[in-house]
Design brief:
This protein has 381 residues and is α/β, with parallel strands linked by helices. It folds into two domains: 214 residues; 98 residues. The chain contains 14 helices and eleven strands. A seven-stranded parallel β-sheet has the order 3-5-2-1-9-10-11, sandwiched between helices. Strands 4-7-6-8 form a four-stranded mixed β-sheet, with helices on one face. α13 links the parallel β10 and β11. α2 runs antiparallel to α3. It is globular, with a radius of gyration of 21 Å.
Length: 381
């Protein structure tokens, strides 16, 4: 019996992460945050964003903070995919400014969570339950009873899960207790960090893996454009790290004698919430393939804080194709997502209606209790 948890923005917003609609506003708020270290760099990146909005997209200054990520990234991603320029920006310039915009999103998400007064108790409780169920593989490697699929970039769950794993006593003869498993090919950004390993490696060493499949990339991933390796880093305290410092693929540096070469300078890996998602990246493909396998093995799929948006049509196709017909579907939303609260056409715009329509022929249960209340029901032993 396997349960797959599908986490959406609501899961992280419950613990202080910003909504997608607030991200541009949060980016402009960064001007007030970076008053000393890295101030000039952040101001320069924000200026690049403002110039792009004004000159390329013809957005007025008063409307900038309300502009959507979809409308910023769609022309960029479309041009990059076609190898073309966009207005006054060349193909190479578009790749560079996209990376800068991604870094601004990383900073904005981190800052929003940091200044939020919301508790992360629900994430901590979920992480403890997640690890508890994942550890069952220590006694029986075939007992693969849980995994997480998420459309979120933030690393609230990743960091807390990793920290809890690191608190465990490492058995004699081993270098780690368990690992966060992104179900793709990863390396540690810190060369000698033995705790960041692929899940299959952990299982081969007689340890366990906690699977978090991040369909749209992650704030703590950097990727080599040459060999396509993903580099991962966790921080207990964070002062900017890979966002401000240039990082290079050490494997390509060694294999091709190309230290500090632009050809293997690491870049962010984030897939934007547009109708034109580029999922051709080899690591993203591997994650999506494994997500399909996880769904196909699940006897129960639980959606927490995920609204089934129209822009996620690729994921909806994966759900339609890979969830078994006899699998139980459980959905956790908030009260305002309940279509029964509306007596007009507005009910058809609710997340509750989208789920009841999409899974109408299945064993479906929708709960409007919110993330925190639902997570409390997950029993810790």
């Amino acid at each position: 019996m396997k349960t797959v948890y599908v986490l959406g923005a609501g899961f992280s917003m419950d613990a202080g992460a910003p909504s997608q609609g607030d991200l541009i506003k949060e980016i402009f708020e960064l001007k007030k945050v970076y008053t000393r270290s890295h101030k000039a760099t952040v101001i320069n990146w924000i200026s690049t964003l403002e110039t792009f909005l004004q000159k390329a997209l013809l957005v007025s200054k008063t409307e900038m903070q309300w502009y959507t990520l979809e409308d910023i990234y769609t022309p960029i991603d479309k041009s990059i995919k076609e190898g073309s320029s966009f207005r006054g920006y060349s193909f190479d310039e578009l790749i560079e400014i996209r990376d800068k915009f991604n870094k601004l999103i990383i900073l904005a998400v981190r800052n929003a969570i940091k200044k939020s007064a919301k508790s992360d108790a629900s994430v901590v409780h979920f992480s403890r339950y997640f690890i508890q169920e994942s550890r069952k593989r220590l006694k029986d490697e075939k007992n693969d009873s849980i995994s997480v699929i998420t459309t979120n970039w933030d690393i609230l769950l990743d960091n807390i899960t990793n920290n809890l794993i690191q608190e465990e006593t490492v058995p004699k003869g081993h270098k780690f207790s368990g690992v966060v498993d992104y179900c793709c090919y990863i390396s540690s950004l810190s060369e000698r960090d033995e705790r960041i390993k692929p899940g299959l490696y952990a299982l081969g060493k007689g340890r366990y893996n906690s699977k978090i499949l991040k369909l749209h990339g992650s704030l703590n991933w950097l990727q080599c454009p040459k060999c396509q390796r993903l580099y991962v880093k966790y921080y207990k305290t964070w002062s900017g790290g890979y966002v401000f410092d240039k990082k290079y693929c050490r494997h390509c540096a060694r294999n091709f004698d190309s230290a500090n070469s632009e050809s293997n300078k690491l870049r962010t890996n984030l897939t934007m919430p547009t109708f034109l998602k580029n999922l051709d990246n080899v690591q993203n493909k591997l994650i999506w393939q494994n997500a399909g396998i996880e769904l196909s093995e699940a006897s129960k799929v639980v959606f927490i804080g995920y609204s089934l948006p129209q822009a996620d049509f690729e994921f909806k196709q994966l759900l339609s194709r890979m969830i078994r017909s006899n699998a139980k579907i459980e959905v956790v939303l908030i009260e305002k997502d309940n279509p029964n609260l509306f007596d007009n056409d507005n009910k058809y715009q609710t997340a509750g209606y989208r789920f009841s329509n999409f899974f109408s022929g299945r064993d479906l249960t929708i709960k409007y209790c919110g993330v925190s209340e639902y997570v409390k029901t997950l029993e810790l032993k």
